[in-house]
Design goal:
- The structure holds two protein chains of two kinds.
- By secondary structure, chain A is mainly α.
- Chain A is flat and about 65 Å long.
- By secondary structure, chain B is an alpha/beta fold.
- Classes of the chains: A mainly alpha, B alpha/beta.
- The interface between A and B is large, with 84 and 117 residues.
């Protein structure tokens, strides 16, 4: 019997949870706020679904109900992607080491 | 582009996201990590454009909406003050949630676009995944909105509770499962809309009973939810990048919630069921005997610190509210000029989100190697001369170690009272979030400084 592709995706999912578990435990507590903002940004990769929905139609009818939801989702996810990565960048730029004593 | 090739690119972007989180293990590598994340995102978006291969006028609109959203996001990212970071993150979570709901709706209306069958005959597995994505997304959205309103102060931070609340929530959660079942059987779009509406409602109901200071747990939890929602959608779209990301974000949020709960010595369910801090009123009034408190002014504080050889600063949410981090840094600089050793002690649940205090101190140019976590620094209090508590309260309460009756008994606290003297900046003697008196106020070695945190710090600097 052939294995359902779903099982492969499930395997990726389960293994990623474990990767996430170990990677996140190694994050230093002082960077927990940037961790939240960057996870925010990357979870907006959901935008790929929004793009597929928005581009599903041909030229005659660009705006159907499903593509409209796609466009709205693109806008929301874009706020998150740009906002998330930039605010993370801004925060991380502030973390500085002590200057060496003379 | 062939489906296999694009799947490989999605895998690459998933791996880049893992590296982005991995970079956060130290501040030196973190900036590079963020660029990995950005690269992963660019790859994922580009591959999607190429594999859909539709560059008609619809594509122009996609770019326009992308840029509009991006401009709004960039504007917010540059303008937001660091003290408002918890609100910002809560707001961003709500957007991820809503985006997940919209994608699920689009997939339900037009399943052909996603290769999931046609309306009315959507593949069973896809329908289940879609429903999970939509429901969790909706819960994330409305929950985050409530968290945002509470953090922003638009809505009162005190818990909202009513009779039968938990029963109602349990019934609604049950009905979501039942609805999903009937939705899969009937493929009825009416049920799909009801499912989404109920999920919005439960997200709202789940967060209103949780008080303001429990927000670190709530934000981490919603962070986790936004990940699971993304993963649900990832299964629907059969997209590896989304599945990997969803799992990463989901487990990240879960770990943060766990750390926060441990920092308060409370179980996750205790926090989620809410109502904490509202029930303590009666016991508080009973033992309202007047105990003597020593209070002082900026001059006294400056005198104490000038004669100290080491000072430990304990910041809390009050510092964020008063925006006192810059004034604090100036005071510390003056202390250092007098050869006084200064370090900072951060409790895991100080502030309104994980790592909140660290970001504020970083903003004020405090080097991160002077900032220590609870376990790292707790033994040093016994050898320090002065502890300067600014805006923290419950996390310093020695009662947590001594009184088994106390609601915060067992919570890890900073051993501030072991210092030779404690300076406690606070506006009044009112109890903290947990609704209990802080025993520290009445200790021999405590000097209360009744003032606004920022003003007091500035005054001390002048007197040094």
């Amino acid at each position: 019997m052939e294995i359902d592709p779903f099982i492969f995706r499930l395997s990726i999912f389960i293994l990623s949870i474990f990767v996430g578990y170990y990677v996140v435990w190694s994050v230093t507590p002082s960077l927990h706020t940037p961790l939240m903002s960057v996870t925010n940004a990357i979870s907006s990769v959901i935008i790929v679904g929004a793009i597929i929905a928005a581009l599903a139609n041909n030229d005659e009818n660009i705006f159907t109900s499903s593509s409209l939801f796609g466009y709205m989702a693109i806008t929301l996810a874009a706020v998150n992607i740009f906002g998330g990565f930039l605010v993370t960048q801004r925060m991380l730029a502030m973390y500085k080491k002590k200057k060496k004593d003379k | 582009m062939s489906a296999n090739l694009s799947a490989i690119f999605y895998l690459i972007s998933g791996v880049l996201f893992i590296l982005a989180l991995r970079g956060l293990s130290s501040p030196e590598t973190s900036r590079q990590g963020n660029f990995f994340g950005i690269a992963g995102m660019i790859i994922a978006i580009t591959v999607t454009f190429v594999s859909v291969g539709n560059f008609s006028s619809g594509f122009t609109y996609v770019i326009i909406f992308l840029l509009v959203g991006g401009a709004i996001g960039a504007f917010i990212a540059f303008k937001i003050p660091m003290t408002a970071m918890p609100e910002l993150v809560a707001g961003f979570h709500s957007l991820v949630g809503l985006a997940a709901v919209f994608v699920a709706i689009a997939a339900f209306i037009n399943p052909q676009a996603f290769n999931l069958g046609s309306p009315g005959t959507i593949k069973l597995a896809s329908l289940i995944e879609m429903s999970i994505g939509a429901a969790v997304g909706a819960i994330t959205f409305s929950g985050s909105i409530i968290a945002f309103l509470k953090l922003q102060g638009i809505m009162s931070g005190s818990p909202i509770t009513f009779k039968g609340q938990h029963l109602l929530n349990a019934l609604i959660l049950l009905s979501i499962i039942v609805l999903t079942y009937f939705l899969c059987v009937s493929q009825s779009s009416k049920l799909f809309w009801i499912l989404i509406a109920i999920s919005f409602l439960i997200g709202f109901l789940l967060i209103i009973p949780i008080g303001g200071a429990d927000m670190p747990v709530v934000i981490s939890m919603l962070n986790s939810y936004s990940g699971w929602a993304a993963a649900g959608i990832g299964f629907t779209l059969e997209n590896t990048a989304l599945i990997i990301t969803g799992a990463l974000v989901g487990s990240s949020g879960a770990i943060l919630s766990y750390i926060m709960c441990k920092g308060m010595n409370r179980s996750f369910f205790n926090v989620i069921l809410g109502g904490f801090g509202a029930t303590e009123q009666s016991s508080k009034n009973q033992n309202k005997e007047q105990r003597p408190v020593k209070s002082g002014n900026a001059d006294d504080a400056a005198f104490l610190m000038k004669n100290a050889s080491s000072v430990i600063i304990v910041p809390g949410y009050g510092m964020a509210v008063a925006q006192a981090q810059h004034a604090l840094k100036e005071m510390v600089d003056t202390l250092k000029k007098n050869d006084i050793k200064v370090s900072y002690a951060i409790h895991p649940v100080a502030g309104r989100m994980p790592g909140h205090m660290n970001v504020l101190l970083a903003e004020a140019n405090v080097p991160y190697d002077e900032v220590f976590e609870l376990e790292e620094i707790n033994n040093d209090f016994a050898n320090a001369d002065v502890a300067f508590v600014i805006g923290a309260n419950d996390v310093t309460n020695p009662v947590a170690k001594t009184d088994p009756q106390s609601p915060i008994y067992g919570m890890p606290v900073l051993d501030v009272e072991k210092c030779k003297s404690v300076l406690f900046v606070k506006r009044s003697l009112s109890p903290g979030y947990a609704g209990i008196d802080n025993d520290l106020f009445y200790r021999e070695n405590t000097l209360m400084l009744f003032a606004d945190a920022k003003k007091m710090t500035e005054d001390i600097s002048k007197n040094l």
